[in-house]
Amino acid sequence: MSIKVQNISKSYKTAKAVKNVSFEVNRGELFGLIGPDGAGKTTLFRILTTLLIANEGRASVMGFDVVKDYKAIRNSVGYMPGKFSLYQDLTVEENLTFFATIFGTTIQENYDLIKDIYIQIAPFKNRRAGALSGGMKQKLALCCALIHAPKVLFLDEPTTGVDPISRKEFWEMLKRLQQKDITILVSTPYMDEASLCDRIALIQDGQVLKIDSPENIIKNYNKIIYDVATKDTHALIHDLKNYPSQYSVNAFGEYIHYIDKESDFNTKELQKYLQNKKHINIEIKQAQITIEDVFMDL
Amino acid sequence: MEKEKIIAVKNLTKKFGDFAAVDDISFDVYKGEIFGFLGANGAGKTTAMKMLIGISSPTTGDATVAGFDLHSQSEMVKKNIGYMSQKFSMYDDLTVKENIIFFGGIYGLSRAKIKTKIASLVKELQIEDIINSLVGSLPLGWKQKLSFSVALLHDPQIVFLDEPTGGVDPITRRQFWEMIYTQAFKGTTIFVTTHYMDEAEYCDRVSIMVAGKIEALDTPKKLKEQFKVDSMNDVFLKLARNIE
């Protein structure tokens, strides 16, 4: 077991940020905390990286207790906070050297581990970190979190605000790190990234709603979802919401995801209803279920 | 019928030294349209948007926004547009009401007008019980809905939304898009950037910037046909990868 969280709770003044959360991450696993802003993801990261003490519960990383053995944890984990926290007025190379030195190592010693990522930012190694683009900052932060060859990597929303291409590349990098026996705990508000993790915890308002592999979460979802599209999407949302047996209506890209309350739901009746509402180009078909669908129905 | 152009951009360029952050772009946006402005980080979206909202002047090229020339009438441009981003929204240490009064004042609304605006927003958004709460104490979803409303206080012809939905939960994100639809239906033009590709599908037309240029511009449906893929995400990946 690489990470063990048992009944952790944490409050700030009046707000309960994390409520009785428990989960375990296996060695070598890529585990995702999936949830929106304010779900409590960052608080959990800070507790696990020994920067914050929980009010209740216990947690350990690689067998080390987060309170008692905090020094051992700090030496053996890498942490990339959500907010860019490298030195803006140091260059790329200076930042990396700085973090290597802090951990009593050198860039050369662990170069193999960061090589794939570092070569992408090497052309800018003399540029100040503050002057890098978002994607470059993210790669530098990952290098700095890896430079002491940690066994466990904590990545708090590494892809927030990053474009789809850089996001895809970033996840490819994580997969490669996983091959090198690094356990990764990563959080993201992007539901489409959930499917790239081995297992995920869906989290909202400080509580874990579900823990499982993305495949199982989708497989165990027991409602049928329909893709519905017509020429006028805005009117379609409105009309579907007024359909007597509607359970939920959510926009999903070019289709509306529609769930009906009734088990004997007939798409023909819905088709007729939409025709009466003057919709044209009506399309109704069974939809592929996504993690986002499941999340919204929890 | 000729559609009314609300933004007309011709050969717009912005250079920083030798580097063209925005490189000779031309496009039109029509009244009441939801226009998605996409691109990778560093593609030049923010630079282009800053020019269109009148806070950065173009190196070369021309544009009119809401009928005003970007070079000679940038102050008029500012008066006729709304702007909202995730980074800049409202003041956390003012209440909802104080924020509305403040921004109303900035936009030059009369006191009477601000008063009626507050009353209508309270009704429309059902914010009776939070109108006197500090904005900082509200959930992110509420802040976003409120800052969208604040960006519309002066009834602008166009509203620019810079990654308005980053980080919010999936339900709030959809509620926000319903607000956008409703506003577009009332005739306000929406110019929006996002990294959520499913949101690109909600736009009437989408442009994709790559390395300072607009490499694609069409309806989501036509873009998918053109690139022979099933989703806007794939359009985006294909386009930006091909260029590299």
From TrEMBL, chain A:
Keyword Zinc recorded: no
Domain ABC transporter: start-end pairs: 3-230
Single GO molecular function: ATP binding
Signal peptide: none
Taxonomy, superkingdom: Bacteria
This protein's record includes keyword 4Fe-4S: no
Keywords: ATP-binding, Nucleotide-binding
InterPro entries the UniProt entry points to: AAA+_ATPase (IPR003593), ABC_transporter-like_ATP-bd (IPR003439), ABC_transporter-like_CS (IPR017871), P-loop_NTPase (IPR027417)
Name used for this protein in its record: ABC-type multidrug transport system, ATPase component
The species this protein was found in: Flavobacterium segetis
TrEMBL record, chain B:
Coiled-coil residue windows: none
Superkingdom of source: Bacteria
A GO molecular-function annotation: ATP binding
Membrane topology reported for the UniProt record: Multi-pass membrane protein
PANTHER family xref list: ABC TRANSPORTER G FAMILY MEMBER 20 ISOFORM X1, ATP-BINDING CASSETTE, SUB-FAMILY H, MEMBER 1
Compartment list: Membrane
Keyword ATP-binding assigned: yes
Name this polypeptide is given: ABC-2 type transport system ATP-binding protein
Keywords of this entry: ATP-binding, Membrane, Nucleotide-binding, Transmembrane, Transmembrane helix, Transport
